[in-house]
Amino acid sequence: MRMTGENSSGNSETTMEDVKNLIKKKDDVEEQIKAYYDVLEDQGVGVEGPLVDAEGYPRADVNLYQIRTARHNISCLQNDHKAIMVEIEEALHQLHAREKAKREQDEAEAQEEAMEQQVVLPSPFARVDAVTQGSPACGAGLRVGDEVIEFGSVNTENFQNLQNIASVVQHSEGKPLRVTVIRDGQKAQMSLTPQRWSGRGLLGCNIVPIHR
Predict the structure, then answer these.
(1) DSSP 198
(2) What is the pLDDT of residues 47-63, one digit of tens each?
């Protein structure tokens, strides 16, 4: 007596709707059992009461057919009730197992994503410790505290000292440079064009090396 929602292929997953349907069927069966118990109570015999008199003859003071029918139906419905309870237990187990598996998968994916982010971000080689208002650096979006991981052709792998950045700036006057920094734990990219402005130098910011 399978009552879970199975499609024609017979392999559909149990849903909460299936569980609700099973619980409704359980409630319906319990109502029917109660109704038949009420019939027996009205007859005054119960489930085990004798249907013959002291001399062994069928009792004439009760409706024998109604009692036998009620007892038979109670027995059948109790078997149905047991089967439904087993199905409900199995369905709930499947739902909980699936929810647990999904939760574990989500946690694993979140952890993997966090690890990927950590792997993706290279170590910075310099930090911006000053940015002048109105300067090319300010206009490009550089901020104090930005940690530089790429400045034009200079990156974590080939950086040796600040002279590397100075050389790139001198040879790139009027040309946009791609600058990548780590800001608040996230990678940020901007375009910085070294050029003459009202202040000193071509950038208008101060960059210091990060000693590792």
Answers:
(1) S
(2) 888 888 888 888 888 88
